[in-house]
Every structure is written in structure tokens, then in C-alpha cells.
Write a structure and sequence with these properties.
Distance between the termini: 31 Å
Shape: elongated
Structural class: alpha+beta
Number of domains: 2
Strand order of the largest sheet: 1-2-6
Oligomer: single chain
Number of helices: 6
Strand content: 15-25%
CATH class of the largest domain: Alpha Beta
Mean pLDDT: 82
Number of strands: 8
Length: 164
């Protein structure tokens, strides 16, 4: 598809970086011209083709449950709107945000995103597959970078700076 100049946009969960095979696949897509972005969490897995067909995983928690295919224009448009909304907020694959003193890693961005939507340290740590103490330590550094008194203020300031 990419060799025929067909536009391909995909959104992956930030955790894809921890799975070597998935990471290599996403990197391969990106190197061939596919547009790839990441977010901490996706509401569902879906494929939309030519704005005419939407394919969704039937059970978000069980990949073996099969798929549902939608051709109805209203359903496909709704799924496309969901995709477009997530796409506009997702981080471009490979982008890092430079601060005055250092670069924000993808995990720092994911941590701030998860914090900004109200997740607790334990949930963030589990999502990023690190210890809660790592989250606390990284947040302390980011709080200094962002001149914030609380982690939630750090997330707010990151949003105001356009990092999230």
C-alpha cells in the first residue's frame, strides 16, 4: 500500500515500545512513510478503510473474540471521528519534546498524559511497567522543569506548553 502512495495513519499505545516485535513493525511502517502516533491508552482497536469500512475488535479485552465489520455510513463516520479526535492528541512517532535542560522521553510524555487524565501513580506505574518510585522520581524532576508545586500542576503546565 505504501509503495502505491496510499496514505496510512495508525495510532499505537505508548507501550508498543516495550514489545520488541511490535516496536520493529511500527518502526518499519514509519520508515516507509506511514504516519504513526502514540497515546497511553486506546479505547478500542480498529481499522478504517477508505472511510467506507470500519473493522473493530469485538471484545477489547480478548483478541480471540473476533471482529465486527461496519459498512453503515453513520457508524463508519462515528468511528472516523473517534480516530481523528485521538489522532489530534497523539504524539508523533519518534518525536521528543525538548525542554530547557533536557528532552522529554516518550515515557515522560506518557506519564504526564496519564497523570493529566487523572490516573494515580500506581496505575501509571503499571501502565508504563515501572516501579511507583520511578514515577515519583521522574515527576519530581519534571516538576522542577515545569516550575510546578504538584504533579497535577506539572501535567497542567505541560498541556499549557503544548507538550500534551
Amino acid at each position: 500500500m505504501l509503495e502505491r502512495s496510499i496514505i496510512s495513519r495508525s495510532i499505537w499505545e505508548t507501550g508498543v515500545r516495550k514489545d520488541r516485535i511490535a516496536f520493529e513493525h511500527v518502526r518499519w511502517l514509519n520508515e516507509r512513510g506511514a504516519e504513526v502516533r502514540t497515546v497511553p491508552q486506546l479505547p478500542c482497536r480498529m481499522i478504517i478503510s477508505d472511510r467506507r469500512t470500519a473493522i473493530l475488535q469485538s471484545d477489547p479485552d480478548d483478541v480471540r473474540a473476533g471482529i465486527s465489520i461496519y459498512h453503515e455510513l453513520g457508524a463508519v463516520e462515528a468511528f472516523q471521528a473517534l480516530f481523528d479526535s485521538i489522532w489530534s492528541q497523539a504524539v508523533v512517532w519518534g518525536n521528543r519534546i525538548a525542554t530547557a535542560r533536557h528532552e522529554l522521553s516518550d515515557s515522560d510524555l506518557a506519564m504526564l498524559e496519564l497523570l493529566a487524565v487523572g490516573n494515580r501513580y500506581a496505575v501509571i506505574a503499571k501502565s508504563l511497567d515501572v516501579d511507583e518510585s520511578t514515577i515519583r522520581r521522574r515527576l519530581k524532576v519534571l516538576m522542577v522543569e515545569l516550575d510546578a508545586r504538584t504533579p497535577f500542576e506539572a501535567a497542567y503546565r505541560a498541556i499549557k506548553k503544548g507538550w500534551l
